[in-house]
Structure to design on (340 residues):
């Protein structure tokens, strides 16, 4: 009887020890928000969930959709979300007009932004200068339209000779497809793919990707709440390591990675989202800069010049920021991991 009693207590002790060990290695909850629906380019964030990369870093990550970059930035600043994806240029401007903003960018996903002017060759548009004398549709809150003064200056376009027609996002692509405007401002990953879906002949579509025409800006970046980063620095570093693995897997096998998007968005169509993803990889993620310097980081000199370009369109209230005010490189994975 005594032997049995001793065995029972040994089991209890073992169980208690296992509980204690489990508590010591409890996963850190991380609330992450995208700046759009689950679409092709979301794959690098969703794949680590399905492959257990976040879990392997001791993180319990939830990924939620968003509507735009401003919403993401406000969510992270308020602490409603710990980490988010947003356009870094929108962040630079928003932190200036609504200080204080306890947020830092920690990882650049889009080394080049997808901002573009999308036009029709049949309307006489081949190069940026051809926009003179034309009508261009522009949704007011569009991130591409926000860079119009930079794009115009970089390409010696006389902006006074271009008619800007304010339109809403839902009618942007239909109006271009119907020939009601000569070109539109939009994301290469959105409008270009959507026009193809609407049956516009692709040999009549010209995509003037701003990054190809003198616009030095970076694109989407991972932003983190400052308090969360201070309280959980290891969680931020772990999240970026998992993301880097997911990013590399996505680049190697986009057709496999897209499944992580499709299972979360039943309305999405595989050919469309796969095209969005492959375009993003080719034009925005795997750039010559990334091939040389690896994923995630910034080049301080280029970023400084990019901020100078933002100053052409945005009058800074609190003084022009330095790269270090915006970007914190301390959470980046080691360079060996970030190499392309």
């Amino acid at each position: 009887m005594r032997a049995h009693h001793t065995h029972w207590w040994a089991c209890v002790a073992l169980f208690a020890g296992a509980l204690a060990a489990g508590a010591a290695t409890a996963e850190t909850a991380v609330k992450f928000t995208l700046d759009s629906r689950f679409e092709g380019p979301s794959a690098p964030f969703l794949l680590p969930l399905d492959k257990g990369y976040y879990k392997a870093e001791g993180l319990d990550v939830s990924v939620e959709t968003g509507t735009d970059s401003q919403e993401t930035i406000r969510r992270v600043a308020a602490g409603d979300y710990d980490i988010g994806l947003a356009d870094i240029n929108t962040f630079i401007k928003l932190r200036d007009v609504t200080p204080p903003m306890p947020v830092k960018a920690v990882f650049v996903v889009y080394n080049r932004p997808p901002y573009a002017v999308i036009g029709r060759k049949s309307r006489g548009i081949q190069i940026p200068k051809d926009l003179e004398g034309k009508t261009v549709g522009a949704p007011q809150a569009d991130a591409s339209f926000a860079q119009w003064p930079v794009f115009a200056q970089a390409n010696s376009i006389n902006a006074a000779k271009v008619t800007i027609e304010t339109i809403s996002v839902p009618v942007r692509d239909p109006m271009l497809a119907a020939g009601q405007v000569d070109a539109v401002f939009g994301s290469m990953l959105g409008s270009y793919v959507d026009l193809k879906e609407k049956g516009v002949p692709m040999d009549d579509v010209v995509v003037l990707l701003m990054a190809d025409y003198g616009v030095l800006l970076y694109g989407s970046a991972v932003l983190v709440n400052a308090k969360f980063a201070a309280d959980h620095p290891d969680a931020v570093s772990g999240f970026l390591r998992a993301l880097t693995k997911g990013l590399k897997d996505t680049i190697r096998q986009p057709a496999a990675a897209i499944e992580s998007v499709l299972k979360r968005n039943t309305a999405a169509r595989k050919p469309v989202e796969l095209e969005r993803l492959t375009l993003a990889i080719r034009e925005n993620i795997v750039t010559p800069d990334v091939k040389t310097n690896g994923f995630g980081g910034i080049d301080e000199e280029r970023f400084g010049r990019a901020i100078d370009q933002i100053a052409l369109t945005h009058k800074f209230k609190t003084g022009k920021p330095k790269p270090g005010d915006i970007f914190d490189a301390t959470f980046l994975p080691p360079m060996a991991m970030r190499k392309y």
User: Anything to note?
Assistant: Confidence is low (pLDDT under 50) at residues 16-24. Strands lie at 28-33, 59-64, 83-87, 103-108, 115-120, 135-138, 163-166, 183-187, 205-209, 220-225. The CA atoms of residues 69 and 295 lie 21 Å apart.
